[in-house]
Amino acid sequence: LGDTAILLCNISYHYKITWLKHNPEQTPAVLLCVSLNGGNIIYGHRPNLRFETEIANRSLALKIKSVEDADLGLYYCMGKIGESMMVGGGSRLHGKWGFLLVKNTCNVNPCLSHILLLLASPALCSCTPGLSFAHLHAAVVGLGLLGMILTVCITHHKTKKRNMTT
């Protein structure tokens, strides 16, 4: 809480994008409407200045500055081009232990999403649908690689220190 969160949209920035926040048992709230014109971001509707957009992965991501408790929840992007409309995958914004977790509830990079959740809090994995052996394996391999890098750095530092004293 208090940090900046960036939620990705899996709809191309060629579409006019509308970001919505879904609150259970309520009508979804429109956070902002945005489009890209000649490389410039054009806001059509933006009632809260803490909500803005930035270009990320060829889409218009939602950027929430100074995240508050009320910001936690489920977000969707919708795209419109001509008569064509589409709804992007949702993203859930969690606040846990003083840091933010953004979980893509769609299939946009689910491996990275699950690994980040696993590394941040193994307890969340039991609540995360679709966590497979491949995800766990990738997380363990990543941790192993990190351990190897740390070991090499520590060994190098100790060897350098020993050579300087002799």
UniProtKB/TrEMBL annotation:
Keywords: Membrane, Transmembrane, Transmembrane helix. Signal peptide: none annotated. The chain crosses the membrane at residues 134-154. CDD domains: IgV (cd00099). Residues 1-84 form the Immunoglobulin V-set domain. It holds the Pfam family V-set. InterPro entries: Ig-like_dom_sf (IPR036179), Ig-like_fold (IPR013783), Ig_V-set (IPR013106). This is Immunoglobulin V-set domain-containing protein. It comes from Oncorhynchus mykiss.
